[in-house]
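I would like you to help me understand the sequence and structure tokens below and explain how sequence relates to structure.
___
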Amino acid sequence: MTAAIAVALGVSAAAPAVAQEEVMEEIVTTGIRGSLMQSMDRKRDASGVVDAITSEEMGKFPDQNLAEALQRITGVSIDRSNSEGARITVRGMGPEFNLVTLNGRSMPSQGGRSFDFGDLATEGISAVEVYKSGRVDIASGGIGATVNIETLRPLQNPGFRSALSAKAVHETSASDGDLGGLNSVTPEIAGLFSNTFADDTFGVMVTASFQERHNREENAAVDSWIQNYPDGLNGGIVNDNNQRTDGVWWHPQNIGYGFSDIKRERINGQLVLQYAPTDRLTATLDYTYSEVDFEKDSNSFGLWFQNPNVESSINERGTVYAVAMAGGDYAVNVARDHTIKENDSIGLNLDFQVTDNLNMALDVHDSSSNLRGGGLGSGVPGSSANLIIGNTFCDWCQFVPGAGPSTATIGTKSAVYTAGGIPIWDVDFVSTATGLPQADLLPSDIGSLFGQAFDVDNVNDITQFQLAGNWANAGGGAIASIDFGVAHTGQEFINRGAASGLLPAGFWLTSAQYWPDDGFREVGFGGLLSDFSNGGSYPYDHYFVTDFGTIVDVYETIDASADPVGTGVYWPGWGPDFQDPSGTRGFFNSGPLGNASGGGVKEDVSAAYVQVNVEDEFNGKPFFATFGMRYESTTTKSSGSEIPVTAIQWTGGDEFASIFGAPTFTVAKSSNKVWLPSVNLNMEVVDDVMARVSYSRTLARPPIGALNPVRSFTANPKINIRNVASGNPDLVPYLSDNLDFSLEWYYSEDSYASITHFRKIVDNFLVTTTTEEAFAGILDPYFGAQAVLAREQLTAEGTDTSNANVFARINENIGAPVGTPVLAEPGDPVVVWDVTKVANSEVGNLWGWELQVQHLFDNGFGVQANATIVNGDVNANRDIVGIQFALPGLSDSANLIGFYENDLISARIAYNWRDEFLTGFDSDSSPVFTEEYAQWDANVTWYANDRLDVFFEALNITGETQRTFVRYPEQFLRGNQYGSRFNIGARYSFD
């Protein structure tokens, strides 16, 4: 040992040859091999089923954040956001069922219970432990697992340490970016300083990192698949092969393509002060900060299909796989998003060895998370805005005086939906003057339709107090020690939102006259989504667009009073907002903060626990057991401001708008109490073979945002999209009874194999229900007497009863100018809303197997492989119609990692696979699935000298894509393409 320390310090020491050989073994077990051994030791020595990953592994994995490092652990899968790991699923239990703590502390989130790992850089992290079986001495909240992130501490590694790392990051998608001025190469830099003073009794550590990331997301999307019944067939279907006995069929609402240029800046910092005046007392004060500034500029363009008055083909499973429609609109959505999320946490920990037998630890912290709008530029406040432009010609307004020089309209638009790849569209145009085909739209055919803006300001605060004790039995006997403690966690979540509502900018009427023809540019999108099997080539492959700021500027110049259809006629009440004499942004004057809403939830959890730890022998083999009980009492108080809808108006074609009334305030209270027992038994049944049996009861609390008591009405209640989201303050925690059986064979000092079987019985599962409800006084003009009369007249005339034609005929019948919004009349039917609400109502059973092996060869090579197989009675049935219970996130997964390391180089290649899984349900209660996904990553590091490492990383080498669908693969919902990412950088150590 003395020789090993001397060599590590560079000091000469005399030692026998045997000791020198032991020193060499110490050197060999550094690097990847050493960190894997540390993780293996944590697993072997733990009470219950635990997996771990150390800082060196995370530093050398070709991963962007902690989530992507954790996906290498057996049973852990990740959800990706913007091509990065964001949240984790453990043993089939989704992100909301897993608790993430930082140094044992509960951390705030944004409306859920799931921590976003994308907020946290890997610098400054010493280890992450995944507790898969329940223990009473760790915070409750994780049914799938509790994940504890451990940060570095200066007194754990006394002396001076300092390091600096930098990398250049290249996103292959960013090289195509032209909307937001993307850079194809962006920087990341991180530094660490740690030192101890006064004979290693006082320590200071500072870590900091900065990341700038630019990338492009290419996407195709369908807004929704509308569920229809046999009586919805009206002669528009040209090829009906539906074999469903219930006759139900699904129709795509639209087809759209787009791309978003994304910029993200992430700042992380941590300051740690430690003081240990005696061997018995250590005080740690730490502050952690992170900020994520996220900007996105988006263009999307597409076709809207009227359901069901179209020419369609239906396959045997009731899916419309080909759709065509004459006329209608063609629109482009120019959107901008900008949010800033700040997380900070300050905490104090006092660890005091009161006596030789008694240790006490006090930990308190105050943490917060704030998500707010960052402003959109061009004078538009808020967090996001959508500005719609498109072909402004329509058949029902072509004779409006001054309607502008529009020369073309859509002749036919169509799309084909397949079980793989993306939908493919086509569109052709007709001259409005001659009725003959026209090769393309012209800039003069483009105008503005409408816009809307939103803002958000959410705050989640957590204050936590934890007092833990350990009494060690010095008198001998089977009881080795007793753990005990109390805790209190207070959490408050306040969500504030605002929306401008649907602000008109011409719709299909006269807006083209306000736009100079040279204001639009033609953009080709050939090659878009080329990584999909059928992507990259489209019969119609370009569109017209202009910049976000330009659209806002023109919107501000539109004077509603000059519009031929008249202010207060076309869009009552909105005229003054188009142009404000004060010179401020009139279009958004009543906007982002005009329709404010929100609410808050305050939650207090008090807990106490005791755990008896037993160490003994059985048949000459070591035996370890823990028996524990945890008690928790929870109270919640929720309140919110609800803005009710008083009426809806039909604004033209397929467009509707909600008319909101005065806000109302609601308050609700609830409480619950639970007992959470746990038993963990560990035994070395034969040499180097560890058997574990664990039972525990664990809980996961519902998303804190779901406890809000208010209802939220959609501002644009189109037909089949008249939705109301309602919170539920009476939700209680999920409760799970868990069993784990594990057998682990540690057949060498650095290699092992294990097999684990787990079972979970989970009660109080949340089920999302959608019910049809009507609210007194809100009448429906779409099904009113005037609409019925208009459809009868058009049918008698042999004219298509499209929504646009019906709307125009109502105006004609009542003698109103073309484009006048239609309001319901007394006696019209009430609006039927789809009200979505969650409630505790189901019990689910899960079971599965975890298989893993780690083998390190003597020649520098090594391999890790694991697989997780999950099943249960919580799977979705994609064939049934109506509400059903199923667990999102349930899927099998596997990892294969190979590496090589010597004194000069280390190389690692990693493969991660996750099977298809249920994402959730849409507004018709149809299941939504994410397709299986597999990714290859690689890392190579050259140890230039004792201080300098140079590395290269490649992520998603093969450019895999992501795809979601409703029910069946041909019911395409969204496809995303991000390309690959390559990093080159260096680390330099100054100590």
In short: The first helix runs from residue 2 to 9. The CA atoms of residues 7 and 783 lie 86 Å apart. Residues 46-380+455-498+596-775+833-989 form a domain with the Maltoporin; Chain A fold (CATH 2.40.170.20).
